[in-house]
Amino acid sequence: xxxxxxxxxxxxxxxxxxxxxxxxxxxxxxxxxxxxxxxxxxxxxxxxxxxxxxxxxxxxxxxxxxxxxxxxxxxxxxxxxxxxxxxxxxxxxxxxxxxxxxxxxxxxxxxxxxxxxxxxxxxxxxxxxxxxxxxxxxxxxxxxxxxxxxxxxxxxxxxxxxxxxxxxxxxxxxxxxxxxxxxxxxxxxxxxxxxxxxxxxxxxxxxxxxxxxxxxxxxxxxxxxxxxxxxxxxxxxxxxxxxxxxxxxxxxxxxxxxxxxxxxxxxxxxxxxxxxxxxxxxxxxxxxxxxxxxxxxxxxxxxxxxxxxxxxxxxxxxxxxxxxxxxxxxxxxxxxxxxxxxxxxxxxxxxxxxxxxxxxxxxxxxxxxxxxxxxxxxxxxxxxxxxxxxx
Length: 391
Hints:
Number of helices: 11
CATH superfamily: Histone deacetylase domain
Oligomer: single chain
InterPro entries: AcuC (IPR003085), HDACs (IPR000286), His_deacetylse_dom (IPR023801), His_deacetylse_dom_sf (IPR037138), Ureohydrolase_dom_sf (IPR023696)
Keywords: Acetoin catabolism
CATH architecture: 3-Layer(aba) Sandwich
Strand order of the largest sheet: 1-2-7-6-3-4-5
Order of helices and strands: EHHHHEHEHEEHEHEHHH
Largest sheet: 7 strands, parallel
GO molecular function: histone deacetylase activity
Number of strands: 7
CATH class: Alpha Beta
CATH topology: Arginase, Chain A
Protein name: Acetoin utilization protein AcuC
Pathway: Ketone degradation; acetoin degradation
């Protein structure tokens, strides 16, 4: 049995900075670690310093041509292509080094689990799930999620489940393993007709020998706590029970929150806290307790991400924070100095009740229809009955 949690962190990961007013600002990571420390979540936890992913590590997922373009981009952005030099993915100094460090941090977290040093590990700077083999996409240069999964497969791990709760579809990870039966990718996200990247339909289920290894649950705009959690529980436990992964990898993007400026789902931080507790239970029930947690999206930099991911860290450590916990005044003062006219939260709750009713099999709403469609698309491929609503 490993230790409780390995936290991979160093302030050097803040150098992954797309600049200016880009939505993916590293301040959200700094504020998360400050809040977790202020609340005592990380008391007694010695963080592990990441190391950059090697060229061999990155080549398991990315092409040599793309990596050469990333290295060259700061000097010749107008020539390199590969999705670089755009508004979403602007180039910046030492971009390869900063991106390789994020990927290396996720590998370092995976190492703790594979070696037996820890049962759970986290890299909140990770979760860059949109990067493709040969191009950058959606603020993501190297796909650390896929790089870490590919590294674990190389070490002999035979079954890995990747579960993505970011508001955007986990398209880069799905693409990397779409025909690999050793990896199950599961994504709950806003419906692709209404949100970038336009993928993640329920009918995307894997290919060839990997039919049934991709699970997509696209949800309509406006989906709130109860409906989102009903969809989660109507699909995810059943497919994990069938697949029985040896490691559960989760991308924990916080941008499904109702305050996020880049999307249209309506979760509260209370539902996000409850979801992290669900992830912990799923890892214990179906993956032998082996849980690799990564960050992801989240663009309400001050009000949402630090609270959500502090709850995530607390959940990983079995130090769950009561929702009504007051945020320390020192943290609020620091955040106010960094923000421009952003009202700061004063507690770790949005004052919401995240309870839900389990799916009954009746399609009474658009979310129920999404549940039905997801189950009908993938359950038969896994030997499951899509009409059985007991889960």
